[in-house]
Amino acid sequence: MVSARFLASAPRTENLRRSWYKFSRNRLSIVGLCTVLLVTFLAVFAPLVAPYPQHASAFVDFANASRAPCPSYPFGTDVVGRDIMSRIFFGFRFSLVMGVVVLSLVVPPGVILGLVAGYYQGTWLDTVIMRTTDIFLAVPPLVLALAICSVLTPNLFNAMLAVSLMWWPWYCRLVYGLASTLRSEFFVVSAELIGASKFHILFREILSNCVSPIFTKISLDMGWVILIGASLSFVGLGAQPPTPDLGTMVADGSKYLPDQWWIAVFPALAIVLVVLGFNLLGDGLRDMLGAEEV
Amino acid sequence: MSFAAFLGRRAAHSIFVLLGLSILIFIIARIMPGDPARMAVGARAPQWVVDNLREQMHLTEPLYMQYVYWLRDALRGDFGISLVTRRPVAADIKEFFPATLELALFAGIINGAGGIMLGAISAWQKDRWVDNVVRVISYLGVVTPSFVFAILFLLLFGMTLNWAPTMGRLSQEITRPATVTGLLTIDSLLARNPAAFFDSIWHLILPAVALALGGMSQEARITRSTMADNLSKDYIASARALGIPGSVIMRSFLLKPSLIPTVSILGLDFAATLGNAFLVELIFVWPGMSRYGINAMLRKDLNAISAVILVLGVVFILTNIAVDIIVARLDPRIQLGGGRSE
Question: Model ipTM?
Fold first, then answer.
């Protein structure tokens, strides 16, 4: 938890060098970083790097339908002749958007509620907030997200909304644990003594010491949120065809097992690749920032 | 704190969580756009039928009264009629839940046994090649979603190698044993029907392993790290110095203290397993509650959705209480319901 903040006297480049050293000591962290960069690159520049960008949505080419992997279609084509590889690149776009949108919706409220509950530990605020998280955590998040998606109209937007509603308690729990120990630290007590405002104590004194674990968790969660989004669309309650979502592609492809195995297997491996990349990166960040709590 | 007081406090907390969950479910069921009564009878029914049904479903009363009626019925085990099967939801759940329970329990056993074994081997062989192999495999296991495992198993072991069946709980030529518990493995043992017993295990293997691998990898990682910590402690060094053989050290001194975090995580994993069962049951055409739940969700069958979620909540809460009791039994330092005495 002793983050770079406390080494502020050292020159900034020195700090960066030291962090990079800590991060890169584990070669797997570098692998994770490269995977995430690669996936991001492919997603952002999908229209330029995909071999057949027009295959991303509704497109039919029956002459080349159900082709096994070959030089011109490295991952094969699906039953209507769309290039699987191009669709995976575009699929990364939806996955990353899902992760970024959900986490930016979830982290602020989760963190603030956790801060308040942790700082006012033992009061009614603590009870109300933390018992509410208990209720949300009493059912697997996937199931509640599925239920919410099902009563709304299934689409990408509602999927993001549903996952967000299920995800905030985890940040609340994490920050609650940190804040409830930090509140009795000397720097918080002395800030209280000199009459600092509650806002200052919560956000400047306590929150700034929770930053490393929060960032580590965000990096790890990117993978999990993408996975839960893919699970929703796998069932048919998330992004709808012809959106090239990885989960939808796996679900479509699983109808054609075992003969056209590539239609399901390559998108499935792409999901694994994304989750793996963000996890390795998150583990590297944890080592670098010393955030063992996550 | 006495054991009874601990149980009482846990029960009170559980009832609170379940009440909260019921409110949450009620809200989810009510945010759906459209009229539930109209949904139930279909678009072509005349308006007076809908109005009658609205009266019957208490939809004309204020929202909080609707919740009270809903809760009262739910407590009696009455979740209404399923729109899909046209049967009482409670009867559907009773029929489908045992299949999911059997699958999840089987997965839980594989998860716990496999995870502890791999973790122990890994810690014992720390930094040798066995350890490295286990660590790589368990990392991949953690990041691979269970539905990807399910599809790969289906393709490889089910369809290509034909090692195990890929659909349902029992082969067609096997007569189903009389239903006692609903768990086919136990029922067939009770009926002294070895053919059905082995056949049901055979059907369980692929979905259960696909469900278990993620959790198992997690357990292996946690067991490894706690056990490796404990291995470097003084009491192990002195046991070794006394010439106590390694297998005895492992069994008598190392396993029990190293299992505490593993058991806690095992409880949480059970919930995740029930969630992942929603996808795995779909892939292996497993006639369980999760597949029933998914079908209900795809058809907006609110009564069935509510019941499935509530049942999952109850299972999760019971599991957590069980885990707390087991952990307290394993660790004499934990005082039930309170802090640790060091």
Answer: 0.83
